[in-house]
Amino acid sequence: MSDKAALSRLPDGWTGGAPDADAFHAMADAALAALPDIFKPHIRGVVVAIEEFADDETLASLGIEHPYDLTGLYEGRPLTERSIDMSGGMPDRVTLYRIPILVEWIEGGERLDWLVRHVLIHEIGHHFGFSDDDMHALEDMA
């Protein structure tokens, strides 16, 4: 692979170090902006957070032994499970785990912005109560 081809696989603004939380936020914002317009009103209140790793309590609650095995997490109540009398709760949240995503990026060779997009759309799919097939269809639409 030529140096030029390798550079085309790096995220915008990459300066040689591991992309930081701000770079991840920029990639997540771009992925959300690319979603079909019909979905956008339903994700306005969803908070997107970037953390280095999931904490031990989160990993234990999911039955995950190694922190590199969790790249993203949706916390909230899917739209399909809500009722009109539910209010006052915390906003739904999608957390992207930077280090596990970077490890997957290094090991898999996929473009980092595409990998962030994939993880984010998968977690947003949980917000909608989508099946894995539905999440793949949403990803194809974005």
Automatic annotation (TrEMBL):
The lineage of its organism: Bacteria, Pseudomonadati, Pseudomonadota, Alphaproteobacteria, Sphingomonadales. It comes from Sphingopyxis terrae subsp. ummariensis. The keyword Protease applies. CDD domains: MMP_ACEL2062 (cd12952). Pfam families: Zincin_1 (PF06262). GO terms for molecular function: metallopeptidase activity. This is Predicted Zn-dependent protease, minimal metalloprotease (MMP)-like domain. Keywords: Hydrolase, Metalloprotease, Protease. Gene3D superfamilies: 3.30.2010.20. One of its GO terms (biological process) is proteolysis.
